[in-house]
Amino acid sequence: MSQPSVILATASYDHTIRFWEAKSGRCYRTIQYPDSQVNRLEISPNKRYLAAAGNPHIRLFDINSNSHQPEISYDLHTNNVMAVGFQCDGKWMYSGSEDGTVKIWDTRAPGCQREYESRAAVNTVVLHPNQTELISGDQNGNIRVWDLTANSCSCELVPEVDTAVRSLTVMWDGSLVVAANNHGTCYVWRLLRGTQTMTNFEPLHKLQAHKGYILKCLLSPEYLATASCDHTVKIWNVDGFTLEKTLTGHQRWVWDCVFSVDGAYLITASSDTTARLWSMSNGEDIRVYQGHHKATVCCALHDGAEPASS
Fold this sequence. Notes:
Layout (H helix, E strand, L loop, with lengths): L6 E6 L3 E5 L6 E6 L7 E4 L5 E5 L4 E5 L9 E3 L6 E6 L5 E6 L3 E6 L5 E6 L4 E6 L5 E6 L4 E5 L4 E6 L7 E6 L5 E6 L3 E9 L5 E10 L5 E6 L3 E6 L4 E5 L4 E6 L6 E6 L5 E6 L4 E5 L5 E5 L6 E7 L8
Antiparallel strand pairs: 1-2, 1-28, 2-3, 4-5, 5-6, 6-7, 8-9, 9-10, 10-11, 12-13, 13-14, 14-15, 16-17, 17-18, 18-19, 20-21, 21-22, 22-23, 24-25, 25-26, 26-27
């Protein structure tokens, strides 16, 4: 099977993962996922694997194969896995779960390498571009920085007490971090390097972005996207965090979004069963991906070059 240069995948409560031709909107492969819903999808940097975070496992599928069977299964979480991602050269993977832990996995073996206790259900985990810190957000409103070099929690902050942190995103150069919560608020911090290697959070903005839950926030070099239960995605300019445009078209909650590598397009996934491709220049939806028959809750896109093999 010749692999397209753009990998686009979506997952739904209908227990399937679908691969799409991004331009035509044609679904060219469907993987049955009978064991649970899929909460999060992530594509490895070399475009070889698709990680699917379920309940309570993570499955790694070979993108270039037609097999429905996962290549590796990671089974040590005990509850919903809400976050999954890869280190920049794909050697390890990280995850966060409602079991209250953040775990690190070797992508070449099924065992867990490390585990960090968050003491509350983890909703979101991102890897700092320096590749040595994980930042997690949990149901109790805690944001924690896990220093992988020191193997400990180096920083803790609570932007709003008892308000779940739903999504975290870090700027590609590590200069900004944004947290979105259940009250529709986004907190923006500038990330400063302390005297040690420790990251310090300097408050920059507080955005009342939506009236309801923000389910996903995501930074590109130019924009912050916030996807919400109010059926819209709002696009904020990172220079001053003013509202640039509102993407309307989805009929239900918008659960997930992902930018193209150049930031010119955004893909969104919604409870209305569809995923959509939007142009950032005019805010119009260019393509609707239809095929799922229940809520589409996550999407993954890899349209960049593969990293040079080290």
